[in-house]
Amino acid sequence: MTAQHINTGRLKTPFYPRIAELDSLNTWHNWAGYSSAEALYCEDMEYFAIRNSTGVFDITPMTKYRITGPDALEFLNRLVTRDMRKIKPGRVAYAIWCDDQGQVIDDGTIFHLKEGDYRLCSQERHFAWLTTASIGFDVTIKEETAEVAALAVQGPTSYSILKNMGVSGLDELKPFGLIHNEFSGAELMISRTGFTGDLGYELWVSPDKAIELWDALFEAGKHHGIRVIGTHALDLARKEAAYLAPFEDFLPAETTVRTGRTRSPLELGLGWLVDFSKDNFNGRRALIKEKEKGSNWRLVKLDIEGNKTAASSYIYANEKNNKSEIGFITSAAWSPICKQNIALGTVRTPHGNPGESLWVEIYYQREMHWNRVMAKADIVDKPFWFPARRGKTPPDPF
Amino acid sequence: MTDKYDAIIIGAGHNGLVCSAILAKKGKKVLVLEANDQTGGAAVSREFHDGFSVSACAHLLYQFQPEVIKELNLQLDIVKDNLETIVLAEDGSHIKYSDGKIAGVSDEDEKSFNKFHKRMTKFGALLKTYLNKRPARLGTKNSKDLLLLAKLGFDIRRMGKIEMREFLRLIGMNIHDELEERFENPLLKGGLSTDAVMGTHLGPRSPNTILTYLYRMAGCEGKISLPKGGMGSLSNMLTETAKNLGVEIKTNSEVKKVLINEGSVTGVETKNGDIYFSSVVISNADPKKTMMHLVGPKHLEIRFTHRIDNFRMKGNAAKMHFALDKLPKINEFKDSDFEQRLLIAPSEHYVEKAFNPAKYGESSPKPVLEVTFPSVSDNSLAPDGKHVMSVIAQYAPYNMKSGWNEEARGEFIAAIKSALRLHMEDIDDCILGEELLTPLDIEKEFNITGGHWHHGEFTLDQFMFVRPVAGFSQYEMPIDGLYLCGAGTHPGGGISGACGRNAAHVILEKGKI
Q1: Do the beta carbons of residue A54 and residue A158 sit within 8 Å?
Q2: The domain B4-44+62-77+230-312+451-510: what is its CATH number?
Q3: Hey, are the CB atoms on A99 and B302 less than 8 Å from each other?
Q4: Residues on B contacting A at a C-beta cutoff of 8 Å
Q5: B299 with A280: CB under 8 angstroms?
Q6: Which of A84, A181, B10, B31 would suit a FRET pair with B267, their CA atoms being 20 to 30 Å apart?
Q7: Which pTM does this prediction carry?
Q8: Could you report the predicted ipTM of this complex, rounded to two decimals?
Q9: Which residue of B has its CA nearest to A130?
Q10: B262 to chain A: which residues are within 8 Å by CB?
């Protein structure tokens, strides 16, 4: 396998021929060994496709592990912090997993495909960790990233487009649900999941049907503003939805060297994903201790005054006394749809309660010269972008 | 059953018994559950041939701790104290050594041996002060841990610059290189090599075999003794002591699992289906068996499980028992010599070569043997005029490539006999009966994973602060109320009682029972 990778250099997904046709900027980056487009013609247009019509993003490089065997459920239940017994076949769970010290390794989605048959998807690779976690469990873990081609189809018109394409069962498909359809003699899985915080779906198919699926999808969407999008547009959308990105908003614990640089789920505002009533899950003992003692850090969603993006800014408790910073920004953007200057950041407790006002120190450049502004930042509780259509079943047609 | 105990101990090995007795002495209500029909674990005597009994696993006492004897007011019945080690030579030019005295070697070697022994005794004594203490945990900021570490550093430094340098040079080294530098007599080098590697999956050229030698020296300055009635009598005495202190002991009660609720132990369930409740469960079973089988990985953290799973404990020593019609003839042997500990290890290279096949899953065609005739000084073991020969034979790897089938067993028995025959030409005429215990048999009979009688390989990465695994060297496991007290914990294997005693003190100090 290694030799193949070296010969191939960077891999191309099965959708590459179609994406390359639509691409005019030629800015590709490496996503888990695959070429993935950062932008294809115009980042802003791509972003607005997500929010106003439909954006299609190639998620084939997302790491996929198939987990099967008699102990699959028990294995997953010990691996992740939430209670997997509640995730029935046909449902998808957003989940996080921790190391022994209760520090987050990564987040991902777990698809309960059929009884006892699971697929775990994550941005980073975790085969070593999963294999270690499987000691003493009767499970089979198979890396199947290259065996499944996948597209994210996200935006308000996505429901109508998929209907046009002939997908059945969409009307009953709730968020975090999945259904199976037949497509050109093969199985097409449709899940109502995504990374945009909007109405949207993800399509999963065998790689040899990838081009056919792409063509059918774009044909069905030609009157509904379907557009291919790149990573930059998606990244902006995920910030609006206040979704976390590894290596930006947290560091995967397994690859972090310095102590104190990792984060627990409680510190990332993901306490709702941690089910302490479960008998055990990895990191439970450490997290119970943290709950008793209190966390060191807290993730905050910030609504910042002005329009200067607060990328990498320090956060202060007061406007004047800025000798002791209390944290820093991890993701920031100007949100076009919310018309808000938004950011995610990490601050030391006891700071970080919703409703509290903090200050961020923003540096920005204007014609080579640097300027500095202290901007007031309000901590908000809800994601910046959370449209009603995201949860509505069946969604409204266009 | 709804009996509630202050503590339940899984396994009535000698460490479990010591631990139970110390807890009971403090007024605790203790239950000991033993899988076998007799107590003692690997320190038992049993009949192996009509009228012939033997210590079934461990057969000599090296390091039973005076601290344990004192704390429990034990009266050890020793038939033979300070045994000599005789390394056999085919031509009768055997060498003898014990407690710093040596005979049968050149003046040069004698001088070197005295020097070597003095230094090893000194380093052993340093180690000894740590046998009866909990070791520090690495990586914590706990002040007691830091103090313990600082004390160790100080103790090493206090030996003086030269001795400290020597200690640090030797501690990770293999014994072969050191012996090669100091001695010329191959028998001496063979004997000392054997002392270092006895019971381990190590050869004299393996790293840290000086450490294993020092561990032996740390016990009771390397003195060896033979308890009356075999090891079983020691266990029986411990059992009586425990019972007199109020410990309840149930044999034929194999624990199936430790009951756990939300990260705390609540009791144990036996294979017979009995359930016993207690918020403290102490396992005398080895770390792997305890954590991987009795507790189960789903209750444990992933990295911890990984470490326990990687804990090396595949035995490489077999036990062979012979019922003898008469004592065999050995060249240039006095009657009293049969009371001693005999070694068949003609040179350090012989020992290393015996180890070679074991690395690749084969038994030694020319094994290293430790031979005792316990019936010579203890006539309770065999019918009048008859004798018992107890042999530890290395190497016999747990993971035999062929598996331990009849053919493999036969081959190894033949190898043992032919090694014996070189020194005891009439041995075949003496044998009335025989029994071979491979590591696989030891695993089955004594419930030790891998049949490793130290409950885990004795190497620097599984020693002291990191025994059984890093962060958990203080008997407390990552389930509330669960402790280990067996040889898989500090200080380690051998019939020392230190693991059980240290564990008991940690548990009492926690104050949760």
Answers
A1: yes
A2: 3.50.50.60
A3: yes
A4: 260-263, 292, 296-306, 309, 478
A5: yes
A6: A84
A7: 0.92
A8: 0.90
A9: B302
A10: 279
